[in-house]
Specification:
The chain is α/β, with parallel strands linked by helices. About 45% of the residues lie in helices and about 20% in strands.
């Protein structure tokens, strides 16, 4: 079998997995579902293993199928990258892009910028999944995930696209009613808005003795940082949030930064994560570069 035929088979098999059915994948490929099913059967016969478990309800990958689809994606991405390198001057990146991003970055950075990205790359289609949970990029067929915070041990390719820091802030409405804290200890008599868990209610400050963590509390706790931002802007209390989240509100004057000389910002990285071998795919590289530029341009 020549390379062109092999890559066509791999592309067909990957499309079946991504679409979840022979009928949907066949429609994309311009062939009949029966022809596509026979093509997959041919691959299985040649390899001597079953790649799919077929039921009336769904298709499921076997262990061998999971290996084959992962390697196929790597090979197809390498082919795409190689072709792009020699045609870069005459062709824009193209293809379908599956993205996973956390809620805060989706709302504050990516959402407002996506129209410009799609306008710049009209041959790229985007499928955006917004969730703060950790995901398996291979199992969920995600091309790139944008995540903040320290990374654990992983085989994924990580590209650092930004460094964020945390800022303590409150709205002028709140400060006019309750006064502005002058020293960290003043926060103990203020309504502080936090994420759940002791780690998020222990706000660090620089002192003469070193770093001191102050246990703050308030009337509102949420596991959604965007809601904390909304509550702070509405005047409910004082929040400690990432700078990219509060940048617009600070610029517009709906929030004011507090205790800048004593608070410890606790910088943290933001990474773009991709499966090895796919990070060089033109559509993925174009997206990662674009998102990095959005953080660079953030006030």
């Amino acid at each position: 079998m020549n390379v062109s035929a092999a890559s066509a088979e791999m592309n067909a098999f990957v499309r079946v997995i991504e679409r979840g059915s022979f009928a949907a994948a066949a429609l994309d490929l311009g062939i009949t579902p029966s022809a596509l099913s026979k093509l997959v059967t041919r691959i299985e016969d040649r390899l001597g293993v079953s790649l799919l478990t077929r039921t009336t309800r769904r298709l499921a990958l076997t262990a061998e199928g999971e290996v084959f689809v992962a390697r196929s994606r790597d090979i197809l991405a390498a082919i795409e990258a190689a072709e792009a390198e020699v045609t870069a001057a005459s062709r824009l990146p193209r293809g379908h892009l599956r993205i996973s991003v956390g809620t805060a970055i989706a709302k504050q950075i990516l959402g407002p910028a996506l129209p410009a990205f799609l306008g710049r790359y009209p041959d790229i289609t985007v499928e955006l999944h917004v969730s703060d949970r950790q995901i398996d990029l291979v199992a969920e067929q995600v091309d790139v995930a944008i995540r903040s915070g320290a990374l654990g041990d992983s085989t994924l390719v990580a590209c650092k696209i930004a460094e964020a820091r945390r800022i303590i802030c409150a709205s002028p409405l709140y400060l006019e009613k309750y006064g502005s804290p002058r020293v960290p200890a003043d926060l103990l008599r203020h309504n502080c808005l936090t994420l759940p868990g002791p780690a998020w209610s222990q706000w660090p400050f620089h002192t003469h003795e070193g770093i001191n963590r102050l246990a703050v509390s308030g009337t509102f706790v949420s596991d959604n940082a965007d809601l904390l931002l909304d509550m702070a802007v509405a005047g409910l209390g004082i929040a400690r949030l990432a700078d990219f989240m509060v940048a617009r509100a600070l610029r517009q004057g709906t929030l004011v930064a507090l205790l800048p000389d004593s608070q410890m910002p606790e910088s943290f990285p933001i990474h773009a994560l991709t499966v090895p071998g796919r990070h060089r795919a033109p559509r993925i590289k174009a997206f990662v570069d674009f998102v990095a530029a959005q953080f660079d341009d953030a006030p």
